[in-house]
Specification:
The structure holds 2 protein chains of 2 kinds. Chain A is mainly alpha-helical. Chain A contains 3 helices and 3 strands. Chain A has a domain of 38 residues: Histone, subunit A, CATH 1.10.20. In chain B, α3 links the parallel β13 and β14. Classes of the chains: A mainly alpha, B alpha+beta.
Chain lengths: 97, 480
Amino acid sequence: MANVIDDETIEYVGILAKLELSDEEKDQAKQDMAKMLDYIDQLNELDTTGVEPMSHIFQVENVFREDEVTNGDMREAVLANAPEEKDGMFVVPQTFE
Amino acid sequence: MAKEYETVIGLEVHVELATKTKIFCGCSTAFGGAPNTHTCPVCTGMPGSLPVLNRQVVEYAVAVGLATNCSITQHCKFDRKNYFYPDNPQNYQISQLYLPICRNGYVEIETPEDDGLKRKRIGIHEIHMEEDAGKLIHDDWEGSSLVDYNRSGVPLIEIVSEPDMRNADEVIAYLEKLRTTIQYLGASDCKLQEGSMRADVNISVREMGAAEFGTRTEMKNLNSFHAIMHAIEGERARQIDLIESGEKVVQETRRWDDQKGMSYAMRSKEDAQDYRYFPDPDLVPVYISDEWIARVRANQPELREAKMKRYRESFGIPDYDIRIITDSKHMADLFEETVALGAQPKKVSNWLMVETLRILKEREMDAQDIGFSPKHLAALIALVDQKAITTTVAKEVFEVMFAEDVDPVAYVEEKGLKTVNDESELRRTVEQVIADNPQSVADYRNGKEKAIGFLVGQTMKAMKGKADPTGVNKLLKELL
């Protein structure tokens, strides 16, 4: 493997993803990420001069909806899996901006 | 000598688009629904749900872009902005980073300067489409927060200006310009108080003449022009104090507390500035053809500048009136429709400029909230023209019309407010007033011309305003 993920990077990525990883898991993740970067390096060897960057794998564009209300009240279904609800709302730990 | 500082200001303005449905699902955007009744798997971020773009969002974004002299990004797409917060159920917001729909535009603003107006061009860096977040309600008793996703997925455009503004006046002029333009396009109602238009203000200061910008801060929670002006003044002073005392301005987001007139650094969301944007794989690219742009351009309604020009040429009303009437699309429509029904333009303008503005101000209402119809205003003006009612009565009727949009003809009939043209009744009243006010009568007879005004007033009062004051005046002079 040409790429090496250092401890600092895996720590940072863990914070961003809100993941608490054990040391073993961190080691595993470091290796997986290094492999991914190696693969990207390999792709980078290709000469893509003059090739339009691709933003989607399907050759499809302009898939639209018309601006018409098609959904009714489905609150009950939406809240069905909520761990906790109150007054028709999801309850989450107190969060301040 | 004290150093002179220049304030440099750039704005990020979020505008909620006036679509009937959300940006990526068929849920209603209507206000006031019970919590979570306008939600579905897409706007609550359920696994496996797929967003589909609302065509009207693209139409509105292009319309705003064209009206603000932007170039349209014909191949554009959506990206995911990743962050964790409970108002954002997917843990990412669908936005546009790499290819925003509009770029490199500008608007012209005017600010008062000395005796005249200073014109200035404010650059628009870009406009992008994105989705709004849900609403958090804090439950202090329980120590928890409640989440309502009715606003989640409501379409927004974010208009990012260049750092071209130098003071609060320019900022307000810029915001007013955006607001009228967008209201004229019908793309949003742009109400700051209700949050359908929101501005984040980026501010830095630098020594006058310096080439480099200073470190900027971003001010949030500004929901009135008043708050924006004070926040700019407050932040300018705070930054100058820091610099003068040898400290550094820290780049951060601050929250304005308008009650206290102070701002606070918002608790930095740990590492949250790293949003790890990437193209949204659930949405296919958008291609806006030349034909599509041409169609939006062709359907563009008359904007304010064009309307003002036309008013000057065709209605013969003062420039001052034109400015105020065209400030709101709704008021301009009301004006034109009333004139089209045969009312004289200056008379229509007077009702709007005097009585309407007075009531709006008294009740802290917006011109968009005017509820009376052009038909009824035209009828009221006609009643005055025919001398069927006096101006005093007309004003009373107008109050009722403003509140309930009553038909003035029927109302005047029902309440018996028609001017009394019965000569004998009027004569009886005038004679009574003369008999009751010997002092004023004596004053008038002794050459105090002004005393007659009091007698006219007494007569009008006795007639409950239903007499023509000119007629009363004439009759009084005759009888004295």
